[in-house]
């Protein structure tokens, strides 16, 4: 699974809670994402009781998309799957030859992941980047971590990485990140991946700041990706040009379904287009090595110039530069 991160873009179809709490819908999301050739399908494991207080208000985008104002707890409760459903869904993903990933939002869900899902990688969502109760329990010896960085700054990302790593791997001076513990950094380099993310649904283009992908890559020297919450696919394609290796995009069967994330997700037709467009973009970007290409070899003979005489030159005459020129 993870080796794909280094061989072109790794596309995660983020099912999230777009199953609306229904197992049959979750199963269909897996099958459709697999048929669209996404690399992975991702769901969210959470306990509403552990995730939000009963009087916590919904985010503005959730109120807008649901067209009602209820508590976050009530909304999340309606979107829970049974814990045993995730085991079944993992088997269905395996049968459909698509990687099965989950995000965890609380400590109990992490415990369940470690005991029953046993995936090689786990996702920590943006909202949990300051949840040190959860981050401290992550075990990098058992699985790798994708960490989303929505709503955060360099200091908060640095702190989260240090908590997950159980060591002071990074430090910050004058808003620049330095590697403090090289040995530990070399260990986590292949075990933690960062996603640039803007936590608004949908995200307006003016807030995307895709150049932050380069910033994260330069500062932390880790594999960087992009969690795309825009309505279209242009941002995902563009992110490859600035170094994204992982693309995460919300996925639904129907944008008009009731739920907080459907309207800002891709439907199956759009997901298939994204898969093809990412492949095309990778071909366009090619290699970073500047060299002549095979298609240019024959043209070099016709277009590059050779040295020729620009006047008659007698036998045994000493030739100087003034007698020569360059022509095709």
Mean pLDDT: 94
Order of helices and strands: EHEHHHHEHEHEHEEHEHEHEHHEE
- DSSP strand count: 12
Helical content stands at 25-40%
- Assess the beta-strand content as a share of residues: 15-25%
Overview of the molecule:
By secondary structure, the chain is of the alpha/beta class. Helices cover 37% and strands 18% of the residues. It contains 13 helices and twelve strands. It has helices at residues 23-35, 48-51, 60-66, 72-78, 83-95, 107-117, 132-135, 154-165, 182-188, 212-220, 234-241, 268-285, 297-303, and strands spanning 10-16, 40-45, 99-104, 121-124, 144-148, 170-173, 176-179, 192-197, 224-228, 246-250, 306-309, 324-327. It has an eight-stranded parallel sheet. A two-stranded antiparallel ribbon has the order 6-7. Strand 8 (192-197), helix 10 and strand 9 form a beta-alpha-beta unit. Helix 1 packs parallel to helix 5 and helix 11 (234-241) packs parallel to helix 12. It is elongated, with a radius of gyration of 26 Å.
Summarize the structure.
Helix content is 37%, strand content 18%. The chain has 13 helices and twelve strands. β4, α7 and β5 (144-148) form a beta-alpha-beta unit.
């Amino acid at each position: 699974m993870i080796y794909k991160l280094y061989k072109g873009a790794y596309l995660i179809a983020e099912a999230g809670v777009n199953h609306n709490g229904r197992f049959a819908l979750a199963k269909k999301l897996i099958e459709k994402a697999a048929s669209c050739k996404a690399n992975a399908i991702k769901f969210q494991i959470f306990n509403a009781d552990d995730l939000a207080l009963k009087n916590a208000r919904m985010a503005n985008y959730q109120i807008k998309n649901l067209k009602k104002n209820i508590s976050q707890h009530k909304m999340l409760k309606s979107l829970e799957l049974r814990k045993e459903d995730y085991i079944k869904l993992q088997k269905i993903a395996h049968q459909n030859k698509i990687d099965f990933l989950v995000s965890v939002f609380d400590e109990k869900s992490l415990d369940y992941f470690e005991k029953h899902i046993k995936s090689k990688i786990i996702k920590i969502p943006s909202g949990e980047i300051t949840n040190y109760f959860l981050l401290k329990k992550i075990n990098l010896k058992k699985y790798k971590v994708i960490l989303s960085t929505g709503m955060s700054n360099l200091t908060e990302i640095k702190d989260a990485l240090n908590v997950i790593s159980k060591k002071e791997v990074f430090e910050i001076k004058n808003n620049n990140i330095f590697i403090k513990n090289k040995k530990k950094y070399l260990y986590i380099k292949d075990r933690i991946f960062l996603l640039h993310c803007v936590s608004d649904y949908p995200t307006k283009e003016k807030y995307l700041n895709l150049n932050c992908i380069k910033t994260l890559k330069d500062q932390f020297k880790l594999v960087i990706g992009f969690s795309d919450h825009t309505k279209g696919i242009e941002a995902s394609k563009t992110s490859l040009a600035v170094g994204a290796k992982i693309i995460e995009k919300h996925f639904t069967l129907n944008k008009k379904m009731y739920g907080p994330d459907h309207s800002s997700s891709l439907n199956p037709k759009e997901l298939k287009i994204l898969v093809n467009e990412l492949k095309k973009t990778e071909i366009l970007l090619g290699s970073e090595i500047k060299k002549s290409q095979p298609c240019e070899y024959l043209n070099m003979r016709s277009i590059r110039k050779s040295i020729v005489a620009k006047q008659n030159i007698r036998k045994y005459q000493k030739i100087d530069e003034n007698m020569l020129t360059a022509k095709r």
